[in-house]
Amino acid sequence: MDQTRVVITGLGALSALGHDVKANWEGAKNGKSGAKLISYFNAEKFKTHFASEIEDFDPSLKLDRNEIKRSDLYTQYALYTAAEAMEDSGLEISRLDSPFDAGVIWGTSQGGLSTFEKEMREFVENDSNPRFNPFFIPKFLANMASGMISMKYGLMGINYTPVSACASSNSAIMDAYNYIKWGKAKVILTGGSDAPISEASIGGFSALKALSTRNGEYQKASRPFDIERDGFVMGEGAAALILEEYEHAKSRGAKIYGEIVGAAMTADAYHMTATHPDGLGAYQCMKFALEEAGLTIKEVDYVNAHATSTPLGDVSETKAISKLCNGEKTKLHVSATKSMTGHLLGAAGALEAVFSIKAINEGIIPPTINTENLDPNIPTDITIVCLKALEKKVKVALSNTFGFGGHNATVVFKELE
């Protein structure tokens, strides 16, 4: 049996809740809503006028002038959180046996969509001299965040970007975990970023009727599991994790936040945008991840649910969790931190991984805010943490992400023993 262990030695986070891990965790613990009226453009042409924007973001605090000039906002978010995670880890690449022992696997859903939107608009509108910016192509490519992180830190090993819609960063974390387990790397910087608060993205999701239209009380719009939920709140940002082979981390005296002990991916094979109504793919994904971890659902203390506040998705996920419990009494609690951060699309899993790890470290389960009247279709054997955080010893946390196209990805985190 493979005894290689994979631990987390660095964290970085950026969302509407704050510009670092500390601010994001404080916001999540205290039930802070990041929703606000959109300031990036005039959203009144759409049915949804709000999103969870990041306020006062200054990339120059961690990026140089050329990095900013040559990168889309989603890449800036990636570089920003990668810098925090690298500093947090105390990792010195120059002290590795080889720079090829360290890599980057970074998820995104939309990549540089804002750059694509801007460049196409300017090209079409400039009748006298239509031209594209020389950095147009590299700025919007989905793999560029991964590439620029590797260039910044000299990480010469595995480097690529999985794209599986809103499951992207969990897919990235799982791949990083596996490559280290397989002995293909000692260290991988992983996570995800998205900057989807643009006219094309808000307009497109609005046309799909996926977004909440609660414009009069937008801070209460994201309400997973609530009977009055009407869609998700768009969010933006990034989160980064340094994954490291345990013996390597121990030998350098690294601070260790916890361990990844299992991960899995499945497909619903059901619908382009809707989850399977009975959560069959989600159920099997969680089951596979727990089997790899050598755990049962009775040993899980916390599930950070994908729960986006959509009518179908929240119910199907809880049905899957209930099926996993199989009528047995468990100690697990469920919460949906998207109620505070909004839905960061391809970055969601990475930020929720940070919250899951912090729940283990601090013994606090962040709440699902705004959930006042549970949907009666939610299975009654699922205990959802609503409105206020719960103090509880968390040894094992499971984090779910599901994406358009039927992608499911689950990661299992455990307290280091």
Give a structural overview.
Helix content is 32%, strand content 18%. The chain is an alpha/beta fold and 417 residues long. It folds into 2 domains: 7-251, Peroxisomal Thiolase, Chain A, domain 1 (3-Layer(aba) Sandwich); 263-414, 3-Layer(aba) Sandwich (Peroxisomal Thiolase, Chain A, domain 1), CATH 3.40.47.10. The radius of gyration is 20 Å and the shape is globular. It starts with 5 loop residues before the first strand and ends with a strand. The mean pLDDT is 96.
The gyration radius over C-alpha positions equals 20 Å
Net shape = globular
Roughly what percent helix? Answer: 25-40%
Number of helices: 13
Instruction: Please give the number of β-strands.
Output: 14
Q: Structural class, please?
A: alpha/beta
Q: What is the terminal separation in angstroms?
A: 18 Å
CATH superfamily of the largest domain, please? Thiolase/Chalcone synthase
Q: What is the strand arrangement across the widest sheet?
A: 5-4-6-7-1-8-14-13-9-10
Our count of domains comes out at 2
